[in-house]
């Protein structure tokens, strides 16, 4: 059975329909300027599973970027916490001291 052909323009216009056809098992060949350039087909069950992320090619660069990303996330969390809770450090220390005193009495 020869796969049906679709154009790049067809994909732009009818992507949802084309994905439904592929999910139903149809194989499609994508053409550009009348020449086949790619083939679309349903995934085999093992292809749909989550794939392992390969190790970074530059571990030091990845570590630096990972640390930068972590710092950005921490900064965003701190900003959100500050906006949501305007408790001052003095209030926090006083409340903590009260809890510690109550805990020591038990």
From TrEMBL:
Residues 39-55 have a biased composition (Basic and acidic residues). Residues 39-62 are annotated as: Disordered. Coiled coil: none annotated. SUPFAM superfamilies: YefM-like (SSF143120). InterPro entries: phD-YefM_TA_antitoxins, YefM-like_sf. Belongs to the phD/YefM antitoxin family. NCBIfam families: phd_fam. This is Prevent-host-death protein.
């Amino acid at each position: 059975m020869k796969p049906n052909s679709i154009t790049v323009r067809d994909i732009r216009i009818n992507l949802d329909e084309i994905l439904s056809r592929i999910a139903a098992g149809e194989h499609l060949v994508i053409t550009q300027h009348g020449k086949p350039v790619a083939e679309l087909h349903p995934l085999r069950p093992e292809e749909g599973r989550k794939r392992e992320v390969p190790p970074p090619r530059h571990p030091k660069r990845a570590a630096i970027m990972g640390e930068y990303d972590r710092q950005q996330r921490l900064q965003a969390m701190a900003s959100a916490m500050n906006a949501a809770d305007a408790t001052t450090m003095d209030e926090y220390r006083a409340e903590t001291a009260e809890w510690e005193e109550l805990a020591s009495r038990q």
